[in-house]
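re the bet — no i am not wrong, look at it urself. input seq straight from the record:
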Amino acid sequence: MNRSLASFAAALCMSAAAQAADSADAARVLNTTFPEAEETELALSGGPQHLRAGATVYVYGAKGFTKTHEGTNGFTCLLNRDAFLYGGIAFKPTCWDPEGATSYVPVMLRVGELLAAGESADAVKAEIAAGFRSGKYHRPARTGIAYMLAGDVLLEPGTGKVTKTQFPGHYMIYAPGVTNADVGYAPGKSGSGDPSIFSGGAGGAELGYLIAVPHRMP
């Protein structure tokens, strides 16, 4: 786990130039479709077992994400593909709570649509930032949680089989605008499992998360 955490931290510290150079290749990896059953299973794997049957599910296709199941418990799950925005190639099975479904999820759906359309990472980030300025998108109104219990994973094209867990399963608490300095996290000094802030994905600091890796996964 420590090696995975260190690798993830190193990835987040890549220079802006390196991210720009890698983003097109990363987008090609993430702009991959899988059979609906496999993608659904992957999407739901991000959440706790007891929430999966009642969750809304989106599946990625040629034009982006499409809702394939209308849930009953307010949670929304999809195989998030926004890692190309920071040069990453990991797929991220994620399940957001009802608050996240109205704030984070609309952004992730639009990112998926733009990814499918072949837009560059810079263009996607610019559009999402403009959406926050115009009020189209908004921060969560309260604290909430996104479950990523399957971790960040690499997948085999065609089958969706997990070939590697790049970052371990974790919880992501909504913390827009909060920085690592605010929570006392210091890269290279804090422990590898200490809570830290992630704001490199869709929405940047507007949709920041506090990442917490449990010592024992459920």
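see?? Residues 1-21 have pLDDT under 50 and may be disordered. told u. also Residues 155 and 163 are 5 Å apart (CA to CA). so pay up
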